[in-house]
Structure formats: C-alpha cells, structure tokens
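Severity: low
Component: inverse-folding endpoint
Summary: output formatting inconsistent between runs
Steps to reproduce: submit the following structure tokens with default settings.
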C-alpha cells in the first residue's frame, strides 16, 4: 500500500478492464513523472467523456452530435444495416473497408446469467428503423455481426427468428472463418473483411418474380419439414416370392 493520492490512483486504475494491480501501479508511477500539460489533457479527456459523449439517435454508436458521422454521411448505403454489439465493433468493421452501409449498435449481447434479455438491448430501436425509410430508402439487408461466441450466437439466432418474416428483408451473417469464442474486435482486418464480403443470407424475402428458386435446399434449415409422400396401397403381388434360403435376422443371430 502506498500513501494517500498515489494509492487512490492505483485503486481507480486497477478497476479498468485489462489493467491488473501491477499495471495500475506502473501507470500511476508513469503519470507521476509526466509533464503537467499531459496530465491536464488526460483530465480534460476524462471530463469530456463524462459530459460530452452522446449516442447517435439512429444507430446508438458514440457520437459528438445528435447523429454519428456514419449516419449523417449520405454516401453510406441506408439500405444495409450491420448489427453489432458495441461501438468498438463498428470500428472493427470500418477498418476492413468492406462495408459501405450503416450500423446498429445493440449495446451488448443476450446473457441470461447477467440477466441481459432482449429488452436490455436496442432491439426495439432496430425494428423501428426497419419500418422507417431513411431519405426514402428502405432497409433491404440486415447483417448480424455479433461476436462469434456463445452470447453473440444466441443474440444472432434471436434476431434471425425475429426478422425472418420481415417483408422484403434479407438477413445475413458474416461468413465462417472468424475465430470462434472470440470477439469481433480481435479478428484481424483481412479475416473480418472476408467474412463481411462473403456473408451468407439466412433468410430472404419471398421471390415474386418468375425466376426459378436459386436457394439451395440444404441451407434452408429453418424451413418446415416436408410431409413424407403417401405410402402406395398394399399390393401382395408386388412382394418377392418366399425364399427359405434368404437370411433373416433370427437366422443370423443363431
Ligand atoms: Zn449513427
């Protein structure tokens, strides 16, 4: 234990994610040695985080205005929404430069242990967005880019079920290849970029054109099972003639 303000600083720093007691001690003594101007800038940054950070009214990303930079950019395709857990995931997808649409930040993932249910996430806001055209553009695709871990997958399944029957909407997931059990932000840019560009549709709007269906049956896991074809009526003439030499189960056992 150190005396007074130094220990107080160490205690506060040690509460930060990824900073253990030893790291906190290192940072504290580093700060003791820096120029007063550096301390002032750090204090100001902390102060601004508390007072000036806002969340975009549309997507929930951190913003310095009513809307974030991406939602106020008319060049970003408003027909595509990439759903992520946290603002840091927006940055991760942005770094790949593979996505030109907009985002929706859920504010976390479903987690029954921490009692985070659908009502704690910004799911209602997402549904409102889907029903409201932005600048005359309707949302045509929702890409669910939650973390590739248990909570993220559970959240994705929940959203897929919820959005499956939304008229005119394609719901997709980034392609396989993201490290399982991890978080989106730790995937390298190339892997995440490939997963985004190779995303696969989980549900698509019903086709109204005369095109033959292009969707392979084997990915249609959520579809209702088809009724088996009716059995033909019993015809004794179709039975093979009795052959006493033919092996039977009883015969093989003996
Ligand atoms: Zn926004």
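Observed output (run 2 of 3):
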């Amino acid at each position: 234990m150190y005396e007074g303000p130094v220990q107080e600083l160490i205690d506060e720093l040690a509460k930060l994610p990824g900073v253990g007691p030893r790291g906190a001690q290192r940072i504290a003594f580093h700060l003791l040695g820096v120029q007063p101007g550096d301390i002032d800038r750090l204090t100001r940054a902390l102060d601004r985080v508390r007072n000036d950070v806002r969340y975009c009214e549309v997507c929930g990303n951190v913003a310095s205005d009513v809307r974030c930079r991406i939602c106020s950019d008319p060049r970003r395709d408003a027909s595509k929404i990439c759903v992520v857990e946290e603002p840091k995931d927006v940055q991760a997808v942005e770094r790949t430069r593979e996505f030109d649409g907009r985002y929706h930040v859920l504010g976390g993932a479903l987690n029954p242990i921490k009692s985070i249910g659908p009502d704690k996430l910004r799911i209602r806001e997402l549904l409102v967005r889907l029903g409201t055209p932005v600048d005359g553009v309707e949302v045509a695709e929702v890409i669910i880019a939650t973390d590739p871990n248990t909570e993220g997958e559970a959240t994705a399944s929940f959203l897929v079920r919820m959005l499956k029957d939304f008229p005119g909407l394609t719901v997709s997931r980034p392609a396989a290849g993201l490290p399982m059990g991890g978080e989106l932000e730790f995937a390298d840019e190339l892997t995440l970029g490939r997963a985004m560009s190779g995303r696969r549709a989980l549900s698509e709007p019903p086709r109204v054109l005369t095109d033959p269906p292009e969707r392979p049956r084997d990915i249609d896991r959520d579809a209702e099972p088809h009724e088996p074809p009716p059995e033909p009526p019993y015809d004794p003439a179709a039975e093979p003639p009795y052959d006493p030499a033919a092996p039977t189960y009883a015969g093989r056992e003996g």
